[in-house]
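so my prof wants the structure for this chain in the tokens format not the other one, which i didnt know existed until like an hour ago. anyway here's the sequence
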Amino acid sequence: MTPVQSRMARAALDWGVLDLAKEAGVSTQTIVRLERGEALKQPTLDRIRCAFETAGVEFIPENGGGPGVRLVRRSNNV
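here's what i got, hopefully its the right format
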């Protein structure tokens, strides 16, 4: 997960820094550090990524067009 992917994922979910920090169980300063590109410990990154994925974000690896995110389609049993 790159800093820009974190910002894109928050935008897709309409989450602020505080929302992500709460969902991931980390401080807001940790989210700010991540999005500035500062190095974080792997377990911290895993918690943040897990919070995003639980909320329905899928991370797209760089495949020539750059890394990205998308929201996972939820099936509607209608």
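also thought this was worth mentioning. Residues 3-71 form a domain with the 434 Repressor (Amino-terminal Domain) fold (CATH 1.10.260.40).
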